[in-house]
Write a structure and sequence with these properties.
The protein is α/β, with parallel strands linked by helices. The chain contains eleven helices and six strands.
Protein backbone atom coordinates (compact mmCIF):
# COMPACT_ATOMS: atom_id res chain seq x y z
CA UNK A 1 0.00 0.00 0.00
CA UNK A 2 1.16 3.57 0.44
CA UNK A 3 4.33 4.46 2.30
CA UNK A 4 4.50 6.82 5.28
CA UNK A 5 4.19 9.79 2.93
CA UNK A 6 1.12 8.43 1.18
CA UNK A 7 3.00 7.41 -1.97
CA UNK A 8 2.42 4.15 -3.82
CA UNK A 9 5.42 1.83 -3.46
CA UNK A 10 5.97 1.17 -7.16
CA UNK A 11 8.62 -1.35 -8.18
CA UNK A 12 10.68 -0.08 -11.11
CA UNK A 13 10.70 -3.04 -13.48
CA UNK A 14 11.53 -2.88 -17.18
CA UNK A 15 9.23 -5.83 -17.89
CA UNK A 16 6.06 -4.89 -15.98
CA UNK A 17 3.93 -1.76 -15.76
CA UNK A 18 1.83 -2.33 -12.64
CA UNK A 19 4.23 -3.81 -10.09
CA UNK A 20 4.09 -2.50 -6.57
CA UNK A 21 4.68 -3.42 -2.95
CA UNK A 22 1.51 -3.88 -0.93
CA UNK A 23 3.08 -5.02 2.36
CA UNK A 24 6.90 -4.86 2.50
CA UNK A 25 8.52 -8.27 2.70
CA UNK A 26 5.12 -9.99 2.57
CA UNK A 27 2.97 -9.08 -0.41
CA UNK A 28 3.44 -7.58 -3.88
CA UNK A 29 1.16 -7.35 -6.92
CA UNK A 30 1.74 -6.91 -10.63
CA UNK A 31 0.49 -7.28 -14.15
CA UNK A 32 1.87 -10.27 -16.06
CA UNK A 33 5.53 -11.16 -15.69
CA UNK A 34 6.22 -12.44 -19.20
CA UNK A 35 8.67 -9.66 -20.11
CA UNK A 36 10.80 -9.46 -16.97
CA UNK A 37 14.49 -8.89 -17.56
CA UNK A 38 17.24 -10.67 -15.67
CA UNK A 39 17.74 -7.45 -13.70
CA UNK A 40 14.02 -7.37 -12.85
CA UNK A 41 14.16 -10.91 -11.49
CA UNK A 42 17.22 -10.11 -9.37
CA UNK A 43 15.52 -7.02 -7.97
CA UNK A 44 12.42 -8.96 -6.98
CA UNK A 45 14.31 -11.84 -5.42
CA UNK A 46 17.26 -10.09 -3.79
CA UNK A 47 15.76 -6.73 -2.80
CA UNK A 48 12.08 -7.55 -2.33
CA UNK A 49 12.63 -11.08 -0.95
CA UNK A 50 10.32 -12.73 -3.47
CA UNK A 51 9.72 -16.39 -2.72
CA UNK A 52 6.34 -17.30 -4.25
CA UNK A 53 4.48 -16.10 -7.35
CA UNK A 54 0.71 -16.61 -7.34
CA UNK A 55 -0.27 -16.73 -11.01
CA UNK A 56 -4.04 -16.21 -11.29
CA UNK A 57 -4.19 -16.54 -15.06
CA UNK A 58 -6.20 -19.31 -16.69
CA UNK A 59 -4.48 -22.44 -17.94
CA UNK A 60 -5.05 -21.24 -21.50
CA UNK A 61 -3.35 -17.90 -20.85
CA UNK A 62 -0.38 -19.69 -19.33
CA UNK A 63 -0.19 -22.06 -22.30
CA UNK A 64 -0.48 -19.31 -24.91
CA UNK A 65 2.03 -17.00 -23.25
CA UNK A 66 4.55 -19.75 -22.53
CA UNK A 67 7.05 -19.94 -19.67
CA UNK A 68 8.09 -16.52 -18.41
CA UNK A 69 11.53 -15.56 -17.08
CA UNK A 70 10.48 -15.93 -13.45
CA UNK A 71 9.77 -19.63 -14.03
CA UNK A 72 13.50 -20.16 -14.60
CA UNK A 73 14.48 -18.68 -11.23
CA UNK A 74 15.10 -21.59 -8.81
CA UNK A 75 14.61 -19.41 -5.73
CA UNK A 76 10.99 -18.69 -6.67
CA UNK A 77 8.07 -21.11 -6.47
CA UNK A 78 5.18 -20.64 -8.91
CA UNK A 79 1.62 -21.52 -7.89
CA UNK A 80 -1.05 -21.42 -10.60
CA UNK A 81 -4.41 -20.54 -9.10
CA UNK A 82 -6.87 -19.74 -11.87
CA UNK A 83 -10.06 -18.07 -10.69
CA UNK A 84 -12.06 -19.76 -13.45
CA UNK A 85 -12.56 -23.45 -14.20
CA UNK A 86 -11.90 -22.76 -17.87
CA UNK A 87 -11.15 -19.77 -20.07
CA UNK A 88 -13.82 -17.98 -22.11
CA UNK A 89 -11.85 -17.07 -25.21
CA UNK A 90 -8.17 -16.43 -24.70
CA UNK A 91 -8.48 -14.78 -21.34
CA UNK A 92 -10.64 -13.61 -18.50
CA UNK A 93 -8.65 -10.40 -18.61
CA UNK A 94 -11.08 -7.65 -17.77
CA UNK A 95 -14.10 -7.89 -15.52
CA UNK A 96 -15.90 -5.15 -17.46
CA UNK A 97 -15.57 -6.94 -20.79
CA UNK A 98 -18.31 -8.93 -22.50
CA UNK A 99 -17.91 -12.24 -24.25
CA UNK A 100 -14.73 -13.33 -22.48
CA UNK A 101 -16.18 -14.78 -19.26
CA UNK A 102 -16.66 -18.51 -18.88
CA UNK A 103 -20.12 -19.60 -17.87
CA UNK A 104 -20.45 -20.07 -14.12
CA UNK A 105 -24.24 -20.25 -13.92
CA UNK A 106 -26.78 -17.55 -13.08
CA UNK A 107 -25.48 -14.74 -10.90
CA UNK A 108 -26.80 -14.49 -7.36
CA UNK A 109 -26.47 -10.74 -7.74
CA UNK A 110 -27.99 -9.97 -11.17
CA UNK A 111 -28.70 -6.33 -10.35
CA UNK A 112 -25.08 -5.53 -9.54
CA UNK A 113 -22.68 -3.95 -12.08
CA UNK A 114 -20.96 -6.49 -14.34
CA UNK A 115 -17.61 -5.96 -12.68
CA UNK A 116 -19.04 -6.63 -9.20
CA UNK A 117 -20.78 -9.76 -10.47
CA UNK A 118 -17.48 -10.91 -11.96
CA UNK A 119 -15.62 -10.33 -8.72
CA UNK A 120 -18.21 -12.30 -6.78
CA UNK A 121 -18.01 -15.08 -9.36
CA UNK A 122 -14.35 -15.58 -8.45
CA UNK A 123 -15.47 -16.53 -4.96
CA UNK A 124 -18.25 -18.83 -6.13
CA UNK A 125 -16.39 -20.46 -9.04
CA UNK A 126 -12.98 -21.02 -7.46
CA UNK A 127 -13.05 -20.70 -3.68
CA UNK A 128 -10.23 -23.26 -3.65
CA UNK A 129 -7.96 -20.92 -5.61
CA UNK A 130 -8.85 -17.89 -3.51
CA UNK A 131 -8.31 -19.69 -0.20
CA UNK A 132 -5.18 -21.40 -1.48
CA UNK A 133 -3.75 -18.04 -2.50
CA UNK A 134 -4.44 -16.46 0.87
CA UNK A 135 -3.10 -19.52 2.69
CA UNK A 136 0.16 -19.05 0.78
CA UNK A 137 0.30 -15.34 1.66
CA UNK A 138 -0.18 -16.30 5.31
CA UNK A 139 2.41 -19.07 5.43
CA UNK A 140 5.23 -18.18 3.02
CA UNK A 141 8.46 -17.30 4.82
CA UNK A 142 9.30 -14.70 2.16
CA UNK A 143 7.33 -12.31 0.00
CA UNK A 144 4.48 -13.39 -2.26
CA UNK A 145 3.72 -11.67 -5.58
CA UNK A 146 0.16 -11.95 -6.93
CA UNK A 147 -0.42 -11.34 -10.63
CA UNK A 148 -2.79 -12.00 -13.50
CA UNK A 149 -2.77 -10.25 -16.89
CA UNK A 150 -3.40 -6.61 -16.02
CA UNK A 151 -2.94 -6.95 -12.26
CA UNK A 152 -6.30 -5.26 -11.71
CA UNK A 153 -9.34 -7.52 -11.35
CA UNK A 154 -8.29 -11.03 -10.34
CA UNK A 155 -5.23 -9.73 -8.53
CA UNK A 156 -7.27 -6.90 -7.03
CA UNK A 157 -9.83 -9.23 -5.47
CA UNK A 158 -7.33 -11.67 -3.98
CA UNK A 159 -5.21 -8.86 -2.54
CA UNK A 160 -8.23 -6.95 -1.22
CA UNK A 161 -9.69 -10.04 0.44
CA UNK A 162 -6.37 -10.92 2.09
CA UNK A 163 -5.90 -7.40 3.41
CA UNK A 164 -9.47 -7.12 4.64
CA UNK A 165 -9.33 -10.46 6.43
CA UNK A 166 -6.07 -9.32 8.06
CA UNK A 167 -7.72 -6.18 9.44
CA UNK A 168 -6.25 -3.57 7.12
CA UNK A 169 -8.36 -0.42 6.92
CA UNK A 170 -10.64 -0.36 3.93
CA UNK A 171 -9.62 3.12 2.85
CA UNK A 172 -6.09 1.81 2.39
CA UNK A 173 -7.39 -1.22 0.45
CA UNK A 174 -9.40 1.03 -1.86
CA UNK A 175 -6.37 3.27 -2.49
CA UNK A 176 -4.32 0.21 -3.41
CA UNK A 177 -7.01 -1.03 -5.80
CA UNK A 178 -7.37 2.34 -7.52
CA UNK A 179 -3.61 2.87 -7.88
CA UNK A 180 -3.71 0.83 -11.09
CA UNK A 181 -5.55 3.74 -12.75
CA UNK A 182 -2.32 5.70 -13.11
CA UNK A 183 -0.66 2.86 -15.02
CA UNK A 184 -3.57 1.72 -17.20
CA UNK A 185 -2.21 3.13 -20.49
CA UNK A 186 1.08 1.29 -20.07
CA UNK A 187 -0.68 -1.90 -18.95
CA UNK A 188 -2.97 -2.03 -21.98
CA UNK A 189 -0.08 -1.18 -24.34
CA UNK A 190 1.86 -4.15 -22.98
CA UNK A 191 -1.08 -6.50 -23.35
CA UNK A 192 -1.90 -5.36 -26.89
CA UNK A 193 1.65 -6.28 -27.85
CA UNK A 194 0.85 -9.92 -27.05
CA UNK A 195 -1.15 -12.07 -29.51
CA UNK A 196 -2.93 -13.60 -26.53
CA UNK A 197 -4.71 -10.36 -25.64
CA UNK A 198 -4.52 -8.26 -28.80
CA UNK A 199 -7.85 -9.20 -30.35
CA UNK A 200 -9.73 -8.41 -27.15
CA UNK A 201 -8.05 -5.07 -26.48
CA UNK A 202 -6.81 -3.54 -29.73
CA UNK A 203 -8.53 -0.23 -30.46
CA UNK A 204 -9.99 0.11 -26.96
CA UNK A 205 -9.62 3.29 -24.95
CA UNK A 206 -7.35 2.23 -22.07
CA UNK A 207 -9.43 4.40 -19.73
CA UNK A 208 -12.35 2.05 -20.26
CA UNK A 209 -10.34 -0.64 -18.49
CA UNK A 210 -9.35 1.45 -15.48
CA UNK A 211 -10.58 0.51 -12.00
CA UNK A 212 -14.00 1.95 -11.26
CA UNK A 213 -14.37 3.86 -7.97
CA UNK A 214 -16.89 2.24 -5.67
CA UNK A 215 -16.31 -1.28 -6.96
CA UNK A 216 -14.29 -2.70 -4.08
CA UNK A 217 -16.49 -0.90 -1.57
CA UNK A 218 -19.57 -2.55 -3.06
CA UNK A 219 -17.82 -5.93 -3.11
CA UNK A 220 -17.11 -5.61 0.61
CA UNK A 221 -20.70 -4.58 1.33
CA UNK A 222 -22.00 -7.76 -0.30
CA UNK A 223 -19.37 -9.95 1.35
CA UNK A 224 -20.30 -8.46 4.73
CA UNK A 225 -24.05 -8.76 4.20
CA UNK A 226 -24.29 -12.10 2.43
CA UNK A 227 -21.08 -14.06 3.02
CA UNK A 228 -20.16 -13.43 6.64
CA UNK A 229 -17.35 -10.96 5.97
CA UNK A 230 -13.96 -11.64 4.42
CA UNK A 231 -12.52 -13.57 7.36
CA UNK A 232 -15.76 -15.47 7.91
CA UNK A 233 -16.02 -16.49 4.27
CA UNK A 234 -12.41 -17.66 4.21
CA UNK A 235 -12.92 -19.76 7.33
CA UNK A 236 -16.14 -21.21 5.88
CA UNK A 237 -14.11 -22.24 2.81
CA UNK A 238 -11.42 -23.99 4.83
CA UNK A 239 -8.89 -21.41 6.01
CA UNK A 240 -8.11 -22.33 9.59
CA UNK A 241 -8.26 -19.93 12.52
CA UNK A 242 -4.51 -20.43 12.95
CA UNK A 243 -3.85 -19.52 9.31
CA UNK A 244 -6.05 -16.46 9.61
CA UNK A 245 -4.13 -15.37 12.69
CA UNK A 246 -0.84 -15.97 10.88
CA UNK A 247 -2.09 -13.80 7.99
CA UNK A 248 -2.97 -11.01 10.41
CA UNK A 249 0.35 -11.34 12.19
CA UNK A 250 2.40 -11.20 8.99
CA UNK A 251 0.60 -8.18 7.62
CA UNK A 252 0.35 -6.29 10.89
CA UNK A 253 4.00 -6.87 11.76
CA UNK A 254 5.21 -5.66 8.37
CA UNK A 255 2.69 -2.88 7.83
CA UNK A 256 1.38 -2.00 11.25
CA UNK A 257 0.32 1.52 10.32
CA UNK A 258 -2.25 0.13 7.87
CA UNK A 259 -4.31 -1.90 10.31
CA UNK A 260 -7.40 -0.91 12.23
CA UNK A 261 -6.52 -1.18 15.84
Amino acid sequence: MNDENGNVRWIALDGAANARVVVPGVLMRSDNLQSLTAQDVRLLVEHHELEVVLDLRTDLEVELEGPGPITREPRVRIEHRSLYPRSGGNTDLDAASTGVWPSTGPSQWPDEPRVVQAYLSYLSARPDSVVGSIRTIANAPGAVLVHCAAGKDRTGVVVALALDAAGVGREAIVRDYLATTGRIDAIIARLVSSPTYRSELEGHDPRSHAPVPGTIERLFEIIDQDLGGSAGWLEDQGLSAAELEQLRRRIATSNGDSTDG
